[in-house]
Every structure is written in structure tokens, then in C-alpha cells.
Amino acid sequence: MAKEKNVERITNMEDDFAQWYTDICRQAELVEYASVKGFTILRPYGYAIWENIQRILDGEFKKTGHENVAMPVLIPESLLKKEGELVNGFAPEVAWVTMGGSEQLEERLAFRPTSETMFCDHWANVLQSYRQLPMLYNQWCSVIRWEKTTRPFLRSREFWWQEGHTIHETAEEAQAETEQQLNCYADFCQNVLAIPVVKGRKTDKEKFAGAEATYTIEAMMKDHKALQSATSHYFGDKFSRAYDVTFTGRDNKQQYPFQTSWGATTRLIGAVIMTHGDNNGLVLPPKIAPVQVVIVPIAAHKPGVKEKAAELMQRLQDAGVRVKLDDSEQSPGWKFAQYEMKGVPLRLEIGPKDMEAGQCVLVRRVDGEKVVTSLESLEMTVAEQLESVHETMFQRAMDNLNEHTYEAYSLEEAKQLQEEKGGFIKTMWCGELECENKMKEQAGMSSRCMPLKQEHLADKCPICGKEAKYSIIWGIAY
Description:
The chain has helices at 17-27, 44-63, 77-80, 84-90, 116-126, 171-191, 238-242, 267-276, 305-318, 332-341, 352-357, 378-403, 411-420, 433-443; strands at residues 31-33, 40-42, 67-68, 74-76, 96-100, 103-111, 135-144, 158-168, 198-201, 213-220, 226-236, 247-248, 254-255, 258-265, 293-297, 323-325, 346-350, 359-364, 370-374, 405-407, 424-429, 446-451, 470-475. The protein has 478 residues and is of the alpha+beta class. The protein folds into 3 domains: 17-276, 2-Layer Sandwich (BirA Bifunctional Protein, domain 2); 293-385, Rossmann fold (3-Layer(aba) Sandwich), CATH 3.40.50.800; 405-475, Translation Initiation Factor IF3, CATH 3.30.110. The radius of gyration is 25 Å and the shape is globular. The model has no long low-confidence stretch (mean pLDDT 96).
């Protein structure tokens, strides 16, 4: 049952989930639409969330030896076309530059939809020996893909992301890298974003253009739809051969390195909104919240209240907490609703009576629970509550995932479950494209992944009746 609503500017998610999502994106001041259709402006609060995601992920990448680089935004058409599968996969979404100033360019330049081609072109020029391997690169940038339909964070014509690109001496090393980065993303979603995910491999139909294998983490939103939250790709030596990237191996012969790429985008902010948000607005995981604690003085006109609030702010800042003091002229009720809208994990209330008692009140955004704590133990209690808020958010999301994951043993049953309950539908699968297409055509679901943790649900494919090879998850996705 929906909580009592404090902010009338947000549509109830039960009435219109899509509009609820858009309302939060704009009313919480995360994004605004730009003058170019399909493009959005990432506003300061939205960018602050992305900065925290960047900071934490970047630290994890560097722990495993990755270095940041910056590649050009424009790719010559001839370079993009060297690996045919990649260009064919992205062709409908590529935006082109044909003029430089007032002059027609001799060759069209593509705004990067992804950067495999540029990395390969670079490696072809700098790689000589196996002693230089592995090369473990990452870049933080934006890319442009000319999407037909757009929605803030989930699908826009320009989005911000990180794209990792690595080359290795052996296939085994590249495969290990692919798995390592998939696990990095899964751990980040669980431990930072409080979002449980299913790790799996994409079918050949759904894999990245040009990849030998694509691995994914799939999350379930509150409306029980799937969201592909990050991917990691193993390329083998296909791109190396296409772009003539070679090195002298240990046997003194020319060899092709093995390549990976992996990426996560601002789509993760959309995942946070749709996994944790409610009808009062955002509910932010503490580790990425721009403000972890907001201090609201009560009866701020009374002697000493503002001073005490400022003292508490300084103490929390010194303890490493991201804290804001709102001592503006707005009423406490307005402030409560505003910071609920913005998803601040903890609200600290301090007034004359609290000061007399040597205490303050902490209010948890995730469930509205009030915690009274002595001022003496404030730093410890705040740290404990921030961790507890994360755990509560994760468990709620895990319950949603578990309660809306179903098994089906026929196409008709899978279709009925999706129509009546939504969520993830698990079945066995023969591995044939024909059956994958039939599930999409008749039940409206795409394959989300073949989980890395395989299950044996039945002997036969529920679609064609042939011998089953894999367990697979189907769903309706963003």
C-alpha cells in the first residue's frame, strides 16, 4: 500500500509508473530537457550522484591496475567500418559530421557510439612486444547514439559512461578480465547501490555487436521490468585482426592480442530511482547520496538552536559525513518534503527541547523510522544508521526480485505469468534462435540472460520440446 504522499508534484507510481519516473527526474532536479531533442542536461544534483558513482567505480578499477585515458570523440568512417559486425550493429544510431567550418569534409566522421575502433587504432601504433601486455585502459566520457525514443538516464542520444578496453597476451587472461569486471559491477550494485542483480551471459541474438561473448547484470525495477545495468564483453582476437593489432610473442613470432571491453552508464541512476524510489520522491543509497544527512533546526528562532545545528554539522563533517544544514526561512514541513523528494538518507532534527535533553532525532528516508540519539554518540549513531539504511534498501530490493521471479514449463505458462504478474520468468531453453524469437513474438519477452548459476528445471525446452541446454531468464526490459 502506498505511503501517504507529501509531494503532489509527483504522479503516483501505481497510477503511471513512467510518468512517476519522469516526475522524479525533474522535480528532484536531476535533469532537464535540452533544446536538442533527445538530449538532457545533467543538473548539479544529478551530476553529484554521478560523481560519487564515478569516484567509487574508478577506485575499484585502479585497484586492479586499470589506467584512465582519453580518446577522440570523432571516428573516421573508414576506421569504423573495418570491423563489419560492429558498424552494422550501430549503423542506425550513428550521428555523422560532414562539415568542418564552412568546408565539406573529405571523409565523414562519426560521433563515437563506442570506442573499440579508436583503441584498436591506437594499439596498432604503440604495441610491439608481449612485455607491454596487458594494457588495461578505461575512459570516462559521453557517447552519442541517435535513439528513436528517449527517457532520462535510461535511453538518451547522449549519455555519460565509463568504457573499459583491455588487450591481453592470451585468451584465458582476457576471459578472466571479462569475468572480473562483471563481478566488479555486480559487487558495486549490491554494496554501493543496494541493488541485487542476476549475473549471466547474453544469447547470441542479444550480445554486443562484434563480441564473442557478452556478460550482463540484470536488475529488477519496482514495476517488475528488467534493466540491463552493466555489461562486459569478450572479443577474442577478432578486433585485433581487423585493425592489424599485433605484438611479438614469447616465441619471437607475430601474434594478435585478445581484447575485452566493459561499461556502465548514467543508466545506473535510473536503476536507483526505479529500484528504491517511492511516491515522495528519490530514496538514495547513502554511499552515492550527495547529502547523507540534512540538519533541520526546529524553532530556529529560539536562542542557541542555529548555533547548535552548526556545531553538529561541523562534527559530522569532521567524521567524513556529507552533511547539509538548512537554516533557511522555509518552514520545517517544507524542508521535510523537499529533502524527502531529494532522497537524503537521514534527516537530523534539533530544537530547544532536544538541546535540553542532550539529544537529537534522526529520521530515516527509507522507512520514516525515527531514532533518538544522544548528542554525545551522534557520529557513531549516524554511521550505524547509514549502514542500516543501506541494508534495509538492499533487502527490500532483494525481496522484490525473489517474489517476482517465477518458473515456467511451457510458452503458454510463461506468457500467462508475465501478463498476470510480470517479473523474471525462468525456463529451460534449447539454445535455438527460433525459440528465442517465438518467446518474443508470442509472450512479448526478450531473453535477459543465461544465469552464470545454471539450474536444471526440466529436460526439455518449453517452446519446441527439444532437449534443453540452458536455463534462461526472460522479461520485459527498459
